Amino acid sequence: MEQASARADWQIHSLQETAELAERIAAKAVPGTVITLDGDLGAGKTTFSQAFAKAIGVKGIVNSPTFTIIKEYDGEKLSFYHMDVYRLSQEEADELGLDDYFYGEGVTLVEWASLIEDLLPPNRLELFIEHLGGESRVVRATGIGEPYADWCDEWNKMGATNENDGSL
């Protein structure tokens, strides 16, 4: 049986709109939420991650865990597990016990997740950020399984689009 999936896209044109989108997505987060984040270098993955962390109540500096692979933060609402798997092989990632994070009590956000796709949980929210130039980006959200497909359907009803012209 095939899982439900849905897509919602937004065009964002500023850091403020990035923060607003992160807040919108963070409002849905519950323990065990898994969000994957892909896009070219410089597309805004870490900026989005920082805004998301702030939205769930993480205090202090959140930076990319490029060399530490995983950073854990305590948020006011939820714990935040921030991963950057860019430098990991599939085998190395498999040895880290990622399921403990994916099915844990916090929210897991994985930058460069497409590099470990086989290790990701079947239900997740996939975000792809495309840099359009300057401050402008398109963020494509694909909800795979429940509740993520429902989230995308709801965002589409609120004005997101799956035709790349939705803006916040």
TrEMBL record:
It comes from the Bacteria. It is found in: Cytoplasm. GO terms for biological process: tRNA threonylcarbamoyladenosine modification. Keywords: ATP-binding, Cytoplasm, Magnesium, Metal-binding, Nucleotide-binding, tRNA processing. Pfam families: TsaE. Its main location: cytoplasm. GO terms for cellular component: cytoplasm. The keyword tRNA-binding does not apply. One of its GO terms (molecular function) is metal ion binding. InterPro entries: P-loop_NTPase, T6A_TsaE. The keyword ATP-binding applies. NCBIfam families: T6A_YjeE (TIGR00150). Belongs to the TsaE family. PANTHER family: TRNA THREONYLCARBAMOYLADENOSINE BIOSYNTHESIS PROTEIN TSAE (PTHR33540). This is tRNA threonylcarbamoyladenosine biosynthesis protein TsaE. The gene is tsaE.
